[in-house]
Amino acid sequence: MRIPCRATIGAVIVAVSAVASFDDECDRSGGNLLQSFAQARRAEKYAWQSGRGNFPNFAVAEANGPFNLSETLSWSWHHPKGRFHTLTWGTVLDHQLNVYLSAADGLRKFDVDGQLLWEHHTLPAILMNAPAIYQGSIFASDTLGGVRALSMSTGKLLWHSNLSMPIGEDNGFTMVHEGVVFTAAGWRDPSPMGPANHMVKALNASDGQILWTYEPDAPVWNFLPLFPDRDTFVFQDMTGRVYRLSLQGKLLWKAGGKPGTWTDGGAALGNGMVYAVNNNNPPKQLMFHSEHSPGTLSAYDLNGTLKWKITTPRPPNNAPAIGKVQGWSGLSVILPICKQVMQGATCEVQAYDANTGGLRWVFHGPKQTGPLQAGDFEGMVDRTTSGVRPACLPNGWSAPSISSDGTVFVGNENGPMFALRDADGDGRVVGNDEVSSFDAKAAFSGSASPAIGNNLLAVASCDTLFVFKG
Ligand SMILES: *[C@@H]1O[C@H](CO)[C@@H](O)[C@H](O)[C@H]1NC(C)=O
Ligand SMILES: *[C@@H]1O[C@H](CO)[C@@H](O)[C@H](O)[C@H]1NC(C)=O
Ligand SMILES: *[C@@H]1O[C@H](CO)[C@@H](O)[C@H](O)[C@H]1NC(C)=O
Ligand SMILES: *[C@@H]1O[C@H](CO)[C@@H](O)[C@H](O)[C@H]1NC(C)=O
């Protein structure tokens, strides 16, 4: 349907949503009006703009989430043919708390009450990463090396760019900043972990044109670029080496990392610093090592100077979140640690002082009960018949997110989604005032970072999207 601009313009004054329909559906004559609407759109503030939240306080929400997860599930969605007919990954929220979900078979938009508004199918190209929304468009990358932009309002394809190289089957984040889309690409041997993404690519968000390619010293894994300001970005490679580049792709500095190692983890920004993780043992050793195989959490200033580093008692296999948490002053680093896919192993969430690395609290998660992570074995046949990968095989924990009241939300490989707070500051997270949980009966991917907006929390397990409302 074609909407005359004038009518839409009237509606815009009362409903910001009409701005979104303007570009996609209205007659484009009248350039100055278009410009003023482009400006209005820039002012739109999405609640959770990327899989990892909003610039500049990534992984930290301005809103509260519902603490009591067992009481507040509002709606959920899984593939209509059954729970295991796709794999679900990252969630983002727009200004109206519409939920956008990336899944192995495509992208979907739901309104705040769970009504499916549109879906966009991508098979045989498989999506693995969390999407990002930016100025009316949603961006995603796929295993066949395609990067695409869709209209947020209609789900219509705006552009598709072929990188002519595969993008790997890890769970990263497609991110957009200042008109530039960032993706990992170039899935090939060798790396300490077999095939991996050797390149970082930047595309123009308005037309998909490839702007530049950067090849780090070691491949990236679960690529997660983050932006300390308008002009630069940081990320880490699979060995924990940190890079800061300009948005034009020029290296400013790189530091740290342990060559020959691999982590499922990523970097974090906050406290005027960049935090990175690495495993201390190479993958072969890690495989046979106990659940206590150590890793390292390093803190650098934004010029790349190492400020401190600590040894973690278990593999640091997801990105930390940096924020203010209940019961503790200043900022904390919330780091999930886990030797994943190990029957009987326990995973933990640890909190450290963001300035010093001093340990603040520890939460002991459940043991992995089955030989595989929750939901993985049960879904293999359905996933295979639906043309998606047979198993999720994710990190031991989702990426953690922190709400404005200092609650940590994080999903565990044995099924529970947790809300955690050390309310009394005693270093332990226990009891009904400090822990609530919801059993998703499935593990959570590394690109599942709970999206938080105004008393709403949207998170995907490996097979289902759950939305909680306070
Ligand atoms: C992308 O490019 C490659 C190599 O140039 C080609 O083989 C492939 O068919 C293209 N994919 C799409 C979806 O256009
Ligand atoms: C993207 O392309 C548009 C034209 O299509 C251009 O105006 C803009 O400067 C480009 N952005 C970047 C970051 O190169
Ligand atoms: C980085 O270096 C610049 C110039 O040397 C200095 O002014 C700035 O304070 C440094 N920033 C940090 C975070 O150390
Ligand atoms: C959640 O709410 C239920 C019912 O009100 C209550 O029994 C339970 O203790 C609450 N859990 C937490 C962690 O507050």
From TrEMBL:
<feature type="signal peptide">
    <location>
        <begin position="1"/>
        <end position="21"/>
    </location>
</feature>
<feature type="domain" description="Pyrrolo-quinoline quinone repeat">
    <location>
        <begin position="99"/>
        <end position="172"/>
    </location>
</feature>
<protein>
    <recommendedName>
        <fullName>Pyrrolo-quinoline quinone repeat domain-containing protein</fullName>
    </recommendedName>
</protein>
<dbReference type="InterPro" id="IPR002372">
    <property type="entry name" value="PQQ_rpt_dom"/>
</dbReference>
<dbReference type="InterPro" id="IPR015943">
    <property type="entry name" value="WD40/YVTN_repeat-like_dom_sf"/>
</dbReference>
<dbReference type="InterPro" id="IPR011047">
    <property type="entry name" value="Quinoprotein_ADH-like_sf"/>
</dbReference>
<feature type="domain" description="Pyrrolo-quinoline quinone repeat">
    <location>
        <begin position="197"/>
        <end position="366"/>
    </location>
</feature>
<keyword id="KW-0732">Signal</keyword>
<dbReference type="InterPro" id="IPR018391">
    <property type="entry name" value="PQQ_b-propeller_rpt"/>
</dbReference>
<dbReference type="Pfam" id="PF13360">
    <property type="entry name" value="PQQ_2"/>
</dbReference>
